Amino acid sequence: MTRTTVTDALLQVSRVWQRLAQDGLMSIGTMDEYIEVCERLLEYAHAQQIIFIDEITPALAEAFVDAPGRDRRGVIIETPAGNTRRQRRSGITSLFAHARALGLTKAAPLMDSRSIPRSPRRPSANLQPQEVARLQFHSERGMPATRHSALLALLLAGLTSAETGAASTADLDLTSGTVHTRGATHTLARTCPLDTWGIHVLTLRTTYLDAERPGPHRLVANASSSPSVVQSSVGAGFSEIARRSGLSTMARKVEPRDVTRYVARRILNETGQLSEVARRLGLSSLDVAAGLADLQWNTPRRGGAT
Fold first, then answer.
1. Residue 7's closest CA among 50, 42, 57, 55?
2. How far is CA 239 from CA 67, 257, 286, in A?
3. Is 121 helix (H, G, I), strand (E, B) or coil?
4. What pTM was estimated for this model as a whole?
5. Cα torsion for 76, 139, 212, 154, to the nearest 10°?
6. Which of 63, 131, 146, 190 could form a disulfide with 142 if both were Cys (CB 3.0 to 4.6 A apart)?
7. What does each C-alpha distance from 295 to 127, 140, 188, 286 come to in angstroms?
8. Is the dihedral of CA 101, 103, 109, 112 positive or negative?
C-alpha cells in the first residue's frame, strides 16, 4: 500500500463528508466540526514531525484529544471540556473510518480508547416571566449597536441557537411581526410570531445595521463564520445577558435552551395544544415537544401494557 500523507487523507475524506452532507446523511454543522478538528490534528501531527497517516499512533491521537486549546477570545484552556474532547474524538474516528474505507490506511488509533464520560445533565432553570423581563432589561444595554436584545428576541420567538445565529434582516417581517427561519439540524422551517418587545428591539437593530451598509445583514452573528462557531457565539452572547441579570450563577446556569423551555410552556399554556408547541418550535416529535414543555404524557398505566 502506498503511504498516504495526513494532508491527502484529510482532503479525500473531506470530500466524502461533503457528499454525505449534500445527501442529508450528515449535518453541515457536523461536517464543519470534523474538518476543523482534523485540520487541527494535521497541525498537531506536523508539530510532532508526523507526515503520514499511518504514523498517527494511539498515544498521539489520545494526546491530541486531551491537548490544551483556546476559547473564542484566544485564551488558553489548559484542560479541554468533555464536549470538546468528545468532538475531537468523534472527528478523528470518522477520519480514520472513511480513510480505511478508501484504502488509505489500516490504522484505527482510537479503537481501544475509553469513552469520555458525560457530566450529569443540569436541571432546567425553569425561567419565570419576571426573570425573562430581567433578561430583556439587561439585554438592552448598548442597543442597537450591541446584538444582545436582538439575540434574546429571536430566542423568545422560538428559534434555536443555530437558527438565531443564521437569522438575517431579510427573514424579518416587522409589519406583520414575524420572523422566518429555514430550520436547523433538528428543527423544521417555519415562521414564528414576535412579541411587542421583540418587534421593537429588532426594528432598532435592523435600522442600525442598514445605516452601516446595504443589507441584508446577519442580526447577531458573523455571516462568514462556520455554523458551529455561530452557535457557540450565540451561546456566549446569551451567557453575557444571563450574568448581567444575575440569573446565571455558580449554583444555577441559565442557557438558551432554558428560554426554549420557557417558550414551550408559554405556548402550551396559551393554546393547550402540544401540536402547536411542536409546530411553533419546528419539532417533528411530540415527545420532544412534551419534554420541553414539562408535560408528562403517554405515561403507561399501572398494570397495563408497556
1. 42
2. 26, 12, 29
3. coil
4. 0.69
5. 100
6. 146
7. 16, 32, 22, 10
8. positive
